[in-house]
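tmp note - Thiamine-phosphate synthase
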Amino acid sequence: MKEADCYDKSTNGVVVMVEPYSQTEQIQQVVYRILDANLDRAREGLRIIEEWCRFGLNNAQLAAQCKKERQEIAHWHTAELRAARNTPGDPGTDLTHPQEEQRTSIKSLLQANFCRVQEALRVLEEYSKLYNPNMGKACKQMRYRIYTLESTLMGRHRQQLLLRSRLYLVTSPGDKLLETVEAALKGGLTLVQYRDKTADDTVRLQQAKKLRQLCHDYGAIFLVNDRLDLALAVDADGVHLGQQDLPIAIARELLGPHRLIGRSTTKAAEMQAAIAEGADYVGVGPVYETPTKEGKAAAGLEYVSYAAKNCSIPWFAIGGIDPNNVNEVIDAGANRVAVVRSLMQAEQPTLVTQFFLSQLISRMKPELGMSYV
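out:
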């Protein structure tokens, strides 16, 4: 600010008055306020993520990485920038959106805060070019590191949710697709695969987007049957591949290291091959003959028992399983089952989901080489 002498006629004397900021100084103060607000935003978002890494995952390495990034941001949060803060005069303090007022799951909470941090860093990267170019460069590199952290953390979240999932719904076409899936999600379902072999791609894309959002809202995993392109287009959590589909190695290259890949298996050799190729889980079946796999002979309960003794990754018994025979499958060694008609054609999908889960959880057995989170 500048000082200037001015004659005050009311007192017949000279007083000292303060001139307003020059235009350049006004712009500078606005930039300082933008930088201050976004430094705060980035630090707050990182702290929320850090707390989940520390207390939710008990992962010291990820928590330490978050803390390191917070300290990096704090390094640039100077007293000069803090001094420009004007919270009472900030019109943004009263702005809100209904989506900000609730979170439906840990997954949605984490994703919201990753977006918050990344957006703040992008703002910092641009506006700091008017303040300190080195700060802009640092924020750019940090933004890339946060992208990697998000991929790693969300991948770990998917793996943990997969381990905890007991019931797996594979959809079939129908007029009540979304209604049925949501009803099952309300009953505690945490894993959904979108499967439609006959619809046009435009229909598949539309349905997959809606299902992906629905699963996201309920904190469930969403997978796509066969189609890697569709999975990528809707940002699905992964794909499920049949024996005649792409090799797992190629799918992994396209999807990246943190999305889930499942493989259907009908016998021991296929199971061991899927494990060796890096599948995250396998389907074991068909346990009983089913119209979903028309013409395919049942693998039987013997294959379920084999999986219980020999499968070192999560596996789901599948094929003709319903409320009347699920306990036979559990007795054979299954802790997880996948179903199609039992839920998609159920009059009360929520209650059927709860029944399946109650039977699976109450009779759960220790698994080969796995620990539960």
